[in-house]
Design brief:
- The structure is a single chain.
- The protein is an all-alpha fold.
- The protein has a domain at 29-160.
- The chain has helices at 4-13, 32-61, 63-68, 70-97, 103-114, 125-134, 142-160.
- The longest helix is centred in the N-terminal third of the chain and has 30 residues, at 32-61.
- The chain is elongated and about 60 Å long.
- The protein starts with a helix and ends in a 62-residue tail after the last helix.
Length: 222
């Protein structure tokens, strides 16, 4: 959730009728595989918006207040990047265990997740910040779905290989993000791993360039 300082700043800057809620998706995937792929695309889109949202936050709160939270926010930023890796590990495990090709279905779900931010990208700065700051992937069960998918995929993969032994407690496990498993809602220093040709992030006190319209570096077709 947002820190009290951030919430207060946003409420003071937002119109009186503002409601604190992140972007919504009316058609969430039903299977764990597609949900995790959707989460991957949605989180990638959120991280892509971060430089823009943070630049506006500095303008509203001021450098001193943002700098005072730097250590805490850096830890939350790392957590989100770990969530993204968790989703990738779970998706890869599911695709390796599946007897039929499913990657295309995952890519389609990723793109739907990324599209969660389409309207947000065209909003006024304060509304973009509200959407970006309020959305938490674990509010829609992303980490739980990734854990279930990874565990089931490993077991199914062993069954397909004719293994007669179950994985022990020292076997592969889905990496977990630091903290309590709940992503924080604002991350001043989070950075998604950009494509090789991605522009560098501008300093927080300078206007940020609009996000690219082509989409994030998702896993893509194979």
């Amino acid at each position: 959730m947002l820190s009290l300082l951030i919430t207060a700043a946003l409420l003071q800057a937002a119109p009186a009728a503002a409601t604190l809620e992140g972007p919504r998706d009316s058609g969430m995937p039903k299977t764990d595989y597609e949900l995790v792929a959707w989460c991957h695309g949605a989180l990638a889109g959120q991280l892509e918006l971060e430089p823009i949202a943070m630049a506006d936050m500095v303008k509203i709160e001021g450098k001193a207040k943002v700098a005072a939270r730097a250590k805490e926010d850096a830890e939350m930023a790392r957590a989100r990047r770990e969530y993204l890796k968790d989703y990738e590990h779970a998706l890869a495990a599911a695709e390796a265990a599946s007897p039929t090709p499913i990657h295309k279905k995952g890519v389609d779900a990723e793109l739907r997740g990324y599209a969660l931010w389409t309207a947000t990208r065209h909003k006024e700065p304060i509304w973009l910040m509200l959407d970006w700051g309020m959305w938490d992937p674990n509010d829609v069960g992303c980490s739980d779905a990734a854990k279930r998918l990874f565990d089931k995929s490993k077991l199914f993969g062993l069954a397909l290989k004719g293994s007669d032994s179950a994985p022990d407690s020292t076997g592969a496990e889905l990496p977990t993000a630091p903290g309590d498993g709940k992503a924080a809602a604002h991350h001043p220093e989070a950075q998604p791993t950009p494509p090789a040709d991605a522009p560098a992030m501008p300093p927080a006190d300078q206007p940020a360039a609009p996000p690219p319209s082509e989409g994030p570096a998702l896993r893509g077709p194979q």
